[in-house]
Amino acid sequence: MKEIPHGEWRFWYAQHKGTLLAAALFVVMFTIYVSNHPAGFTANVVQTASNKAALLAFVAMAQCFVVITAGIDLSVGMILILSNCLASLLVVGTPFQTAVGVIAVLLTGLACGMLNGLIIIFGRLQPIVTTIATSAIFFGLALLLRPTPGGAVNETLADAFTSKLFDVVPASLVVLAATLLIFWIPFSRSILGRAAYAAGSAENAAYMSGMPIKRAKFAAYALAGLMSAIGGLYLTFFSYTGEAAFASGNAYTLYSIAAVVLGGVSLAGGKGGAVGAVFGALAFRTIGDLLFVFDLDPLWQPLFQGIVLMLAISIGSIGLARVRNRLEWFQ
What we know:
Blueprint: H1 6-36, H2 43-67, H3 76-90, H4 95-122, H5 127-145, H6 155-162, E1 164-165, E2 169-170, H7 171-189, H8 191-208, H9 213-239, H10 246-262, H11 274-293, H12 301-322
Antiparallel strand pairs: 1-2
Helix pairs in contact: 1-11, 2-7, 2-9, 2-10, 2-11, 3-4, 3-5, 3-9, 3-10, 4-5, 4-9, 6-9, 7-8, 8-9, 10-11, 10-12, 11-12
GO molecular function, one term: transmembrane transporter activity
Keywords: Cell membrane, Membrane, Plasmid, Transmembrane, Transmembrane helix
Membrane topology: Multi-pass membrane protein
């Protein structure tokens, strides 16, 4: 068997260090959680934790697509809320009607992301300003669809996507893994994916090299909208209803940024990946579970989440401060 050179191992570790740290943090926190849970490590406990974490994981994945281009999307939470409200209206009825409703919700999320991309790329507006404005539009549409909480969802479909496969594996984890395989891995290895990373590390140089920067950014924002819509569908599957909850949308947006940072994705762009963002979301969501098993006041949750986020940012800042040249950060 051919031995892998030490230098290649170092390069692989440098590329995936953030993901490995996020995965290790999640494993440690979840082990503490199940060790102190009254029911212990059971399929039901894992299923419940998975279902609660899946929502943030999908939104974190959405945020990751944009952050690697050195952008940010402050509308992902409101796209999730809009998709939730729309799903509570359309994902009902016969199997055919339900399928059409699911497609309509996903296309709506995709369209929202495409709108963000078009305004930012061709309107040449700052991502943070653009997505603040579009988030208000998306919330307004959600409120128009659902002025009061209500609606329904196809219960058979909802149960299928939130139950356990073979009474062991949570379906939400399977869908999350499938989403990574179908969307993230092909994108990250494609020309558009490489251009997205290049845009985040050195956009001017990438543009001068002839890389499709505009198309890469547009694809990143479009996929962010699609991932948020999947999260909105799952929110409907869990709650069986739709609600234009402003505070919830803002919280998911904020937590998605925290999750990508915790997962080793650089807010400066060009470094990290969706797998790390997902582990970051799982770890971040486990904080609430730990407070539950230790019977601590829920009011402490923002404090602990803030401490974890600050530590994550500090680790990334230390690594960034050590480099003498910006290009070294991406080697």
